Amino acid sequence: MVALLALDAREQPDRIGSPGQGCRAEALGGESLSEDARRIHTSHPLERDRQQEDNVEMEQHTTVDIAASPARVWEVMTDIERWPEWTASVRWARRLDEGPLRPGSSAKLSQPRIPTSDWVVTELEPGSSFTWVMRGPAILTKARHVVEPLPGGGSRVTLSIEPHGWLGELVARAYRATTDRYLAMEAAGLKTRSEDASRS
């Protein structure tokens, strides 16, 4: 789920170029900044604030209300290998470990138009949320899945994805519409499967 942006650097078009190309900070006179100067530039408080703002802008998310208990939604959401049964955004999924999902758990996902990738759980609140990441050359993608109880009953789910790294940001911009479509498919599929009483 929300496993888009798992693109390996080898899959990118030539126009992206090599690390630093088109993204390199330049000093006056057109010369490249030295390593020390670049380090000072990126650690400056104003530059850190700019990077944080960029990350917020790059995050994509969707929210859906589901007429099912958080426990039921959590059961569906964490049954990774059955995701292809309710969302076309995942062709197949395979857990690389056994037992309940937990920090350190990993899975391999295959999605349309995206290279098969390994995802590793980094944070998990049982029955409430989990975050996992995909790492590749010059890219780290973080996907978060949150389920909350609604006051009148039922659940609210938020799915989000956030790219990091120079390649991750380029890929995110190029695939923004596809990411939105996959998030919508996954939210709709999760809602339908969770509300299907015959499968509880």
Automatic annotation (TrEMBL):
* One Pfam family linked to the record: Polyketide_cyc2
UniProt cross-references to CDD domains, sorted A to Z: SRPBCC_Smu440-like
Which segments show compositional bias classed as Basic and acidic residues? 35-56
* Highest taxon, organism lineage: Bacteria
Region entry Disordered, spans: 1-56
Protein name (database record): Coenzyme Q-binding protein COQ10 START domain-containing protein
Which organism was this protein described from? Pedococcus ginsenosidimutans
- Classification lineage: Bacteria, Bacillati, Actinomycetota, Actinomycetes, Micrococcales
